[in-house]
Amino acid sequence: MSSTLLAISLILPGSMPAWAQREPVLPAVSAVPDAGDGDATTPVPAATLPPPAASSAQAASAVSPALPADAARAARAKPVVWQLQIDAPAPLDKLLRTYLDLARFQEESSKDQSLGIRRSELRRLVVSAPEQARGLLEAEGYFNAQITTRVSEDQPDQPDKPVVVSIQVEPGPHTVISKVQFVFEGELDNRLSNSDPLAQALLDKLERGWGLPQGQVFRQADWSAAKNAALARMRADGYPTATWSGTSVTVDAETHTAKLFLVADSGPGFAFGDIRVEGLNRQPASAIVNLAPFHKGESYSEKKLLDWQERIQKLNMFDTVFVTTDLDPTQATATPVVVQVHEQPLQTASTGIGISSNTGPRVSGEHLHRNIFGLDWQSKTKVQLGRNESTGQLDLTSHPWPGNRRGLISLQGSYLVDSEDTVTTSQYLRVGQLREGERLERTDYLEFQRAEVRSAQSVVVSNASAVSGTAQWVYRDVDSQILPTKGYTALGQLTGGRTYSALDDEGYFGRTYARVTWYRPLWLHWYATARGEIGQVYARDQVSVPDTLLFRAGGDDSVRGYAYRSLGVTRDGVVVGGRAMSTGSIEFAHPLSSKMPSLWGAVFLDAGDAADRFGDLQPKVGYGVGVRWRSPVGPLRLDLAYGNEVQRWRMHFSVGISL
Questions:
Q1: Helix or strand or coil: residue 198?
Q2: Staple 309 to which of 323, 380, 418, 428, CB 3.0 to 4.6 Å?
């Protein structure tokens, strides 16, 4: 590495006060306690000490006449009043005031007056300041700085006037990176020589993700961070025992450039071996093994292990999950993977009580069996009784199958009273499978459902059944699944089938539905949320479609300011579902107080409608204000909304997020 010079301009002896210059070493000295500094000692020439046989009174008499040398020495022993001035461009001035010993001692002594400093100690700090400043400036990329220190003269006639220590810095230009060179040893080098695609992909990641690219200013903190990040990348992508064999920075002070040279020893390339599951009593190992995102012999990946551990935790079958590997270089080609789990109880039951602005108060009970009849299926039974809505539901979900697939069977019956005392009863049976990915989740199922709508006078307004097939996609790309502030979620459905009606004609139909929610942080701690949804049913006008497959709007997660499911098509004086629907919403939220960052205030605007045709849509507008509490289980929302069409205020509250 080429040497680097830092020009330091020091005021020579003669320009500084005598006390600020280095003193010559005194021969034959003894140490006597300094009454002013407790345990501190002051060197005093032995010739000035009183004779050993003299009494204390004689000693006092012997030293009472103050000689000039004694007076100077006594003055040096007293604390000196001083102040520091740093003249450097921002932000270097703040850096020096934070880390220079001179600056830190001045700050501490200003808080505690007992921490006085003698001239000898101040002299030591002044002499060491340029070297300290040089190290700090080099860490920020200034390798050709000029530093000047000055100390003002004592003023005998003004003993209380502080001595001024000034440090002037001219940092010069930044040093920038002119070249970055990687050299590899070990198995990674062998694979690169053989044009292995995975090794080349890793090299590309290292070069693209390198934190100090050519043309960037060199800083010590960035240099350390870049090396740590590159090493972590190698360890995470197949070489968990990788180390740096050597790294160097060559700085050319004349051209203000730096060359980076790094040698990495990758060690052996690791590959996944056999999987061993520990801690199982009632659950099958296949529930865990089938979720593995890798196969035996596949290159080691730390990310895949972490993703696998997260998937196992989401099964709701285990209290604790730990996925580990034995990184033994002698077993690198087949590294054993150990999964340690602790099972949750086989069965759990819970009860609850709640209230919703959509459907009113309710009580509920739920039972979960994590391996019903030993068939490797979970069953969840839920019963909910409410003022406006009552439901009973049974969900059967298989343990994971190979390929991240799970089987599902669902049966539900519901009784719903709408705002005009219209009663909708419905039942469905679904059979299908779920495919889970990192962000994308797909569900395919066949379904039979029936729905009937009766007016308050018990007049049947709609009655239809349908057999259909549905493909559903759910995509999530957000910073938090529970409390998102950045990213978006999307849901899409495609349905096709045949209806069977007790009132109108039978026939074939199609249905599409999409919903997107977008989250974005703004300036000054504001956060935006936008939502849009659209849906349509395709069928001949005479074909009756179950009301549960049609669309309505209004309510907490639709158009606030209007009652739940109150926007739709009016038939025989009763609101029923329409074949076309579109809604949209925009909301801005901000924390109400820095002391309570989880409590937000919000303003919002919603609009939307449902009709039999898109051309018949007449968007209804609602707007208002609300409060958000970002709780551990999701946001609790309390909104006061004004429905422009109905010209009245309505309260809305809900918990959680909607896709």
A1: helix
A2: 323
Instruction: For residues 545 and 459, give the distance between their C-alpha atoms in angstroms, rounded to a whole number.
Output: 18
**290 is written with which tokens?**
């089938």
What's the CA gap between 165 and 119, in Å, rounded? Answer: 12
Across 279-317, the runs of DSSP E, i.e. the strands, are none
User: Tokens at residue 563, please?
Assistant: 């009652």
Q: What is the pLDDT of residues 254-283, one digit of tens each?
A: 899 999 999 999 999 999 999 999 999 999
Strands (E), 1-45: 7-10, 29-33, 41-45
Q: Where are the alpha helices (DSSP H) in 166-209?
A: 187-193, 197-209
To 5 degrees, how large is the angle CA 140–CA 145–CA 150?
Answer: 115
pLDDT in tens, 550-606: 999 999 999 999 999 999 999 888 899 999 999 999 999 999 998 999 999 999 999
The Cα 31–Cα 44 span in angstroms is 6
CA distance 299 to 281: 31
What's phi and psi for 250, nearest 5 deg? -105, 115
Q: What tokens does 60 get?
A: 């006092």
Q: What is the pLDDT of residues 173-182, one digit of tens each?
A: 989 999 999 9
- CA-atom Rg of the chain in angstroms: 39
The pLDDT value recorded for residue 154 is 66
